[in-house]
Specification:
Elements (H helix, E strand, L loop, with lengths): L2 E7 L1 H4 L5 E10 L8 H15 L2 E6 L6 H9 L21
Parallel strand pairs: 2-3
Antiparallel strand pairs: 1-2
Length: 96
């Protein structure tokens, strides 16, 4: 596989928003295949299919430090609407 994108249906959370929404949760292009427009093409096709399923909005999250992803989302017409703090809790390894 050269590239993949995964979306989730935000509808349970977005029910009161008044429009069908999907969230982009994973986008990956093999390192050897990057900078060839594959992510742009893949997402463009995904957006076409989501639109055919009555999805009106797609949301994505990206780290502020990920300039490449930010440029891609800007190029695709995404607009920054919020910023957040990410929390992480490391749990003990269950195997130990």
């Amino acid at each position: 596989m050269v590239a993949h994108a995964m979306f989730w249906d935000i509808e349970p959370l977005a029910a009161t928003w008044g429009f069908h929404t999907a969230g982009l949760v994973d986008l990956h292009v093999a390192e050897s295949e990057r900078r060839q427009g594959l992510a742009t093409h893949l997402l463009g096709e995904a957006f076409r299919q989501l639109h055919a399923q009555s999805v009106a909005v797609v949301e994505a999250q990206v780290r502020e430090s990920n300039a490449t992803a930010r440029q891609l989302f800007d190029k695709l017409g995404f607009v920054e609407v919020d910023q957040s703090v990410v929390y992480r809790k490391e749990l003990a390894n269950p195997a130990t």
